[in-house]
Design goal:
It is built from four helices and three strands; from the N terminus they run αβααββα. It is an alpha+beta fold.
Length: about 70
Amino acid sequence: MGSALKDMRFLTVAEVAELMRVSSMTVYRLVRSGELPAVRFGHSYRIPETAVAAAVELPTGVQAPNRINRAG
């Protein structure tokens, strides 16, 4: 188990919010509802990177919406 934990990467709520392009409050809601597993350290949460990857995966057959390039 030691090596598995050593290889695990944890993200802050702010990092998860940036990756998912949502607010920090949305991440807190996902954690509190149990939709996004997290570990609490004192007053802050750490979310396993693998949990974030699993949360943003789309079900088979669902296509991601096209993004519009709004730059320039």
